[in-house]
Write a structure and sequence with these properties.
single chain, 118 residues, alpha+beta, 4-stranded antiparallel β-sheet, 19% helix, elongated, disordered N terminus
């Protein structure tokens, strides 16, 4: 029963901390950059971003803790871990939203809209 409760808690935490980013792509000069593209590919299609920022994204991680009692069951524990990612910001033109491309392990994890440029 405890394993089920811990698994349910893990799923709930994962949903609460999901990034809310949609499966969007960034349009650059008639080509699209999207999830799975490498940094090199994005630069080739869209050029250099107006800014780059390293971010720490908290993500739930499951760990097992051994019982201090001989023969006792191991306990499943959900912890928050910092997952290093990089956000690149692209200016899409006056009156448009900024494009924010998030990279994880050198590949696009998500693309989302930022502030609207006036």
């Amino acid at each position: 029963m405890r394993t089920f409760a811990a698994s349910a808690l893990f799923c709930l935490l994962a949903l609460m901390h999901a990034d809310g980013a949609s499966a969007q792509s960034l349009s650059c000069g008639g080509t699209l950059s999207g999830v799975g593209d490498s940094k090199f590919s994005v630069v080739q299609k869209c050029g250099e971003p107006m800014s780059k920022e390293f971010v720490c994204v908290p993500r739930p991680q499951v760990a097992w803790v051994l019982s201090p009692y001989p023969g006792g069951p191991a306990q499943q524990v959900v912890t928050q871990q910092c997952v290093p990612m990089e956000d690149w910001v692209y200016h899409r033109g006056q009156g448009n939203f900024l494009g924010i491309v998030r990279f994880y392990n050198g590949a696009v994890e998500s693309v989302r809209d930022g502030e609207k440029m006036r």
